[in-house]
Structures are given as structure tokens and as C-alpha cells.
Amino acid sequence: MTLLQAIVLGIVQGLTEFLPVSSTAHLRIVPALFGWHFSYNHGSNDPGAPFSAIIQLGTTIAIVVYFYRELLQVTVAWFKGLTDRSVRSSLEYKLGWYLILATVPVSVFGLIFSDQITTGARNLWIIAVTLIALAVILYAAEKVGSRRRGEEQITAVDAAVVGTAQALSLIPGASRSGTTITAGLFRGLTREAAARFSFLLSIPAVVLSGVYEAVKPGAGGSPGVGLTGIALVFAFVVGIASIHWLLRWLTSHTTFVFIFYRIALGVLLIVLLSTGVLSATH
């Protein structure tokens, strides 16, 4: 991996992590389109699941910085509520438990299907189909969701449903924000509330994933600390701008632009794969 490639992939990660278009898919597609091949990953145009998971920590830091007040309130209330019953009725205390509850499914499925996620599931055919499939489901959520409930009305059932949906984001092309925002819309949350809960929920999942990929034996598949760190920094900077833009966008717009984009990208991938322009695995 060159310095330019690390910067581009960091920017791609920052732009696509929070939009419901799948950052993992784009980290696979961009190198394939440009014909990049990474020697550290056996000459593949896939930068690798470990690299992807670790630079996601950059966008996770962006969430922590952007929502630091809310995260601090939730953390303090949760710890205080463990011993003080008077705090347990607060939204912040409940959110603490909801985030823990919603993280369980993705943690369990991530451990069970770790090998499949880092190998076969990164096939571009799977990504193309998943891009289109989630677009159709998100469209249905936009049509049937009532969008009447704000963040203060999130319940344990919402957390369980959204957390289960987050587990589906382990499939490259599904999108962590895409699956969780879709589930939130189906549960009747407003677009902004669904997005905010989605962003907060990504923190423990991405941290656990990044740490797991960094320390697991024989992880490999990384260009090294220096280039990975550069990509992570760019992901952080661009990620903050992306969060700010998306939350403002969703206050007055639908997610249709992302639905159309996902379908167009999925169809383009299918055409390029079918004509042999791109290889699904190399």
C-alpha cells in the first residue's frame, strides 16, 4: 500500500461509514476499480478485513468526539444508576443498558462467523447483491415507518431489534448504519433518532471488532502501523464532517438518495463482474 492509497482509503472510510451505503463495500470496490493490488494481502485488491476493522476505529473516535457530551452523560448515569435507584428512570441510564443489549447480537455473530466474514463474504458478487437487497428493505422502511418517536422514546425492544439488525451488517455491503437505521425506521423512530442511536451503537461494536482484528493470532493482512495510522487519521477527520452532514440532511430529507445510489452501484458491480472487467475475489 502506498501513502496515496492509504489516504484515499481513509477518506473513503470517513465518507461512507455513517452513510447507509457500506464502508466495507467501498473499501473493497475502490481498490478493485483502480486496479490496486496489495502485496501484504497476497497481491489481492482487497485491503483486508483487519485493515478495514482497524481504520474503522478512526470513525469511531469521530463519533466519540462528536457526541462526547451525550456519551459522558450516559456513562455517568449508567454507573451511578448501578447503586442509586433514583437515576434508573433517566433516559441516559436506560440508554446505557440499551447500548449494551444491542451490542450482544453483533458480538456473538461476529465471533461465530469470523472466518466467513474475513474471507468468502468479501466476494464482490455478495457485496453487489447485498447493496441492492438492503436498498429495497430501506425503501420499505421509509414507506411503512411512522417516524413519530424521538430518541427519548427508545425502548428495550427497539434496542434488541436494532441490535439484531446490526449483526446483519457483518455481511459486507449491508452497512452498519444502513441496517440499524432501517430497523429504527421500521420501529417508528424518526430518521434523526434512528441515525443518532445507530451512531452511538456502533461505538462498542467497532471498538471490539478493531481490537479483535489487531490482536488475534495470525491476523496479518495489514500494510503496517504507519500507513494504517494515516488512513485512520483521515477517516477520523472526514468522519466528523460526514456525521454532521448526515444528521442535518435527515432532519428534512428522506434516505432515497442513498437507496438509489446503492441500487446503481450494485447494478454497476454486477455488469463489471459479468463482463470480466472486475474479479470477484482478486
Structural features, described:
- It is a single chain.
- The protein is mainly alpha-helical.
- It has one domain (3-274).
- The chain is built from 12 helices and no strands.
- It has helices at 3-16, 23-34, 49-66, 68-81, 91-112, 114-118, 124-144, 156-168, 176-186, 191-215, 225-250, 256-274.
- α4 crosses α5 (91-112).
For the record, the count of structural domains works out to 1
The helix tally amounts to 12
Mean pLDDT: 90
Task: Summarize the main sheet.
Answer: none
Features:
282 residues, globular, mainly alpha
Explain the layout of strands and helices:
Elements: H1 3-16, H2 23-34, H3 49-66, H4 68-81, H5 91-112, H6 114-118, H7 124-144, H8 156-168, H9 176-186, H10 191-215, H11 225-250, H12 256-274
What's the short story on this structure?
71% of the residues lie in helices and 0% in strands. With 282 residues, the protein is mostly helical.
